């Protein structure tokens, strides 16, 4: 399967390049960076620590999309919306791991999925997706005597909060309880907030150091507490999951899929 990586010179882009290069059944066939990047024209293998692999970074996304089977995209919302449209035009697989998407961004990507096979997840880790499935089931099994809190920590450079993964966990908890997350999410507490509202799903975001990603879901009732945690120490787990998703998407009908679909969860 011929795969291209967008944002190939970035930290996550280099992880994706390495994952594709080392994956059976996948071939790195394109590397894209934004216009004006100093990486344009360089062999992406050198940037990724692989040595020369014969794939030169280009800013020509349209031409690259036309010659590959899939694109891996962990960039920024505006770029991901554009890449989804290009994937729809090329009728290829678009694996999107971009976080911080607005409602209009989500709508644009959903529209592109009429013609492209789009796999969109806030997190491509196998462990995190198992955590999501467990959160949904536990929330469904417990009543509102158990308060749900989601705590996440990431490196100091992360620009969005709560993390996309925390929101994914919150959505899983809401689905388990049969409620709309937008109606029960408590995303900020400061000052005299009053007592916790029954049924809320709370979020807390911590930032510091070079933490790749820690997520804990807490179910707290009087006299007992359940905590389930996932800690990521290596960004490679997300890259390998993204390649797995691309390979799974080959030959699928156009539509919007998640990593839970890929893993059969």
Describe the structure in your own words.
With 265 residues, the protein is α/β, with parallel strands linked by helices. It has helices spanning 11-22, 44-47, 61-65, 77-90, 103-112, 126-141, 164-177, 181-184, 236-249, 259-263, and strands spanning 2-6, 27-32, 57-58, 70-73, 93-96, 117-120, 147-154, 185-186, 201-207, 213-221, 224-232, 255-257. The strands form 2 sheets. It has a 7-stranded parallel sheet with strand order 3-2-1-4-5-6-12, sandwiched between helices. Helix 1 links the parallel strand 1 (2-6) and strand 2. The chain is elongated. The two termini are 24 Å apart.
Termini separation (Å)?
24 Å
- Unreliable stretches (pLDDT < 50, length at least 5) are none
Structure annotation, total helices: 10
Annotation, overall tally of beta strands: 12
The whole-angstrom Rg is: 19 Å
| Fraction in beta strands | 15-25%
Overall mean pLDDT = 95
| Strand line-up across the major sheet | 3-2-1-4-5-6-12
- What form results from the Cα inertia axes? elongated
Largest sheet: 7 strands, parallel
Helix content: 25-40%
Short description:
The protein is α/β, with parallel strands linked by helices. Helix content is 37%, strand content 24%.
How is the secondary structure organized here?
Elements: E1 2-6, H1 11-22, E2 27-32, H2 44-47, E3 57-58, H3 61-65, E4 70-73, H4 77-90, E5 93-96, H5 103-112, E6 117-120, H6 126-141, E7 147-154, H7 164-177, H8 181-184, E8 185-186, E9 201-207, E10 213-221, E11 224-232, H9 236-249, E12 255-257, H10 259-263
Helix pairs in contact: 1-9, 4-5, 6-7
């Amino acid at each position: 399967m011929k795969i291209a990586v967008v944002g190939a010179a970035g930290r996550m882009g280099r992880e994706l390049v390495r994952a594709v290069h080392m994956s059976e059944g996948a071939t790195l066939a394109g590397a894209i960076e934004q216009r004006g990047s100093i990486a344009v024209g360089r062999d992406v293998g050198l940037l990724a620590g692989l040595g020369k692999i014969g794939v030169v970074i280009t800013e020509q996304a349209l031409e690259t999309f036309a010659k590959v089977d899939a694109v891996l995209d962990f960039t920024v919302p505006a770029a991901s919306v554009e890449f989804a449209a290009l994937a729809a035009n090329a009728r290829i697989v678009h694996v999107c791991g971009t976080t911080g998407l607005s409602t209009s961004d989500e709508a644009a990507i959903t529209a592109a999925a009429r013609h492209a096979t789009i796999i969109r997840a806030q997190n491509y880790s196998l462990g995190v997706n198992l955590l999501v499935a467990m959160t949904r089931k536990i929330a469904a099994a417990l009543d509102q005597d158990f308060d749900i809190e989601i705590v996440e920590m990431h490196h100091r450079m992360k620009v969005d909060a709560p993390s996309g993964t925390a929101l994914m966990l919150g959505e899983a908890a809401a689905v388990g309880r049969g409620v709309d997350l937008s109606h029960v999410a408590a995303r900020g507490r400061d000052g005299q907030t009053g007592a916790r509202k029954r049924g809320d799903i709370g979020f807390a975001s911590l930032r510091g150091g070079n933490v790749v990603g820690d997520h804990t879901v807490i179910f707290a009732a009087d006299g007992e507490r359940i905590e389930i945690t996932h800690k990521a120490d290596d960004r490679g787990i997300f890259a390998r999951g993204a390649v797995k998703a691309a390979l799974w998407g080959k030959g699928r009908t156009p539509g919007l899929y998640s990593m839970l679909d890929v893993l059969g969860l």
